[in-house]
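In the design runs reported in the main text, the only information available to the sequence generator was the tokenized backbone. The following block is the verbatim input for one such run; it is reproduced so that readers can re-run the procedure and compare outputs position by position.
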């Protein structure tokens, strides 16, 4: 039973009053339906306000019916007509959008709820490592303590597992999002900083500042091997930030004459510097935008987040910072960039181009590695 058809009279409410149609005491219900109303919703430029939405009738018509009129209520006090209409929503919110499809002898109405999202509202959970209080904080207000100083934080969405580094104890740890089921994955690390996950291969890649190396950790048995190091492979000194994409790791190094961004294949076939100090300064955090094929990285020397192509070309500033961005994450679903700033103790969000910057967390001691959970 279609609950939208002629329910107004039965409920004592005229569903069609907004469309300037009469609500008669004895409404003539046709013996058979000629139209079953339905429509599709398409966001032409994303579902964040301001947003342009296309509404298209997908109504079913009885064979032989060709003359149909469509009247719309957009849920914001405005209306329109036609089988296909476009409407702009300037403000976020939930809008009850209605359409009436009418033939000469029959009509049907349908209502759907349209959600236009607030571009400044957080759509995900944000977790980050506070190295000052030695805790992993969730911006929803929860947190749990860790055993030692840490920088790196990564999340496996498939198994809903957090991974993080403990530099004081030289370990890689896993746990649930709430800190339960805490497990030592690997030991024998020296000064592990950031880490990246290759879930398909079952590997974690860790930037070990003490060993001056990129370590490969088998997540199933905790086996640790050296993927690249300074002495044997020409890796830059003092690696800190790391991310993984499409068989390659991207690393930040902070030692003088080794700084900026390095790239290497996870098969160990070669590590090279794709950005030097003259092109990108030096900094800490790094994140890959796998959809737009970009890298975002911290340039602490000039207090900014930069963006470049995966080969290091096309460097441009995204946004100015206050210095030392360790945690950096790209959210393509919501078109957002998240980052921590150690000097301010704040966590920030912006659009991917750096616009619409918002402070989403403040008052922390030493915020470092950051992840988001959809």
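Verbatim output:
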């Amino acid at each position: 039973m279609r609950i939208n058809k002629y329910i107004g009279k039965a409920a004592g409410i005229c569903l069609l009053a907004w469309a300037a149609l009469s609500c008669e005491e004895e409404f003539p219900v046709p013996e058979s339906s000629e139209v079953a109303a339905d429509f599709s919703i398409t966001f032409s430029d994303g579902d964040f306000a301001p947003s342009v939405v296309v509404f298209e009738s997908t109504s079913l018509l009885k064979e032989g019916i060709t003359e149909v009129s469509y009247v719309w209520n957009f849920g914001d006090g405005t209306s329109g007509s036609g089988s296909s209409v476009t409407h702009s929503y300037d403000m976020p919110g939930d809008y009850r959008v209605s359409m009436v499809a009418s033939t000469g002898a029959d009509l049907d109405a349908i209502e759907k709820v349209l959600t236009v999202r607030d571009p400044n509202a957080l759509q995900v959970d944000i977790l980050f490592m506070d190295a000052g209080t030695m805790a992993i904080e969730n911006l929803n207000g929860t947190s749990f303590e860790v055993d030692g100083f840490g920088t790196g934080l990564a999340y496996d969405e498939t198994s809903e597992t957090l991974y993080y580094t403990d530099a004081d104890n030289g370990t890689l740890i896993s746990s649930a999002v709430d800190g339960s089921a805490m497990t030592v994955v690997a030991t024998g690390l020296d000064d592990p900083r950031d880490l990246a996950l290759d879930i398909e291969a079952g590997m974690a890649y860790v930037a070990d500042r003490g060993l001056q190396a990129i370590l490969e950790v088998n997540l199933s048995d905790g086996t640790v091997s050296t993927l690249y190091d300074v002495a044997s492979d020409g890796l830059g000194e003092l690696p800190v930030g790391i991310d993984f994409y499409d068989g390659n790791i991207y690393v930040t190094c902070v030692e003088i004459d080794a700084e900026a961004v390095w790239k290497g294949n996870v098969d160990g076939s070669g590590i090279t510097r794709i950005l030097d100090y003259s092109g990108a300064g030096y900094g800490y955090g790094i994140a890959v935008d796998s959809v737009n094929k970009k890298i975002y990285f911290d340039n602490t020397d000039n207090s900014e987040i930069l963006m470049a192509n995966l080969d290091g070309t096309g460097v441009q500033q995204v946004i100015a910072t206050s210095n030392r961005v360790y945690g950096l994450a790209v959210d393509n679903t919501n078109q957002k960039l998240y980052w921590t700033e150690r000097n301010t103790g704040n966590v920030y969000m912006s659009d991917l181009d750096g616009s619409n910057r918002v402070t989403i967390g403040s008052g922390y001691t030493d915020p470092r590695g950051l992840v988001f959970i959809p």
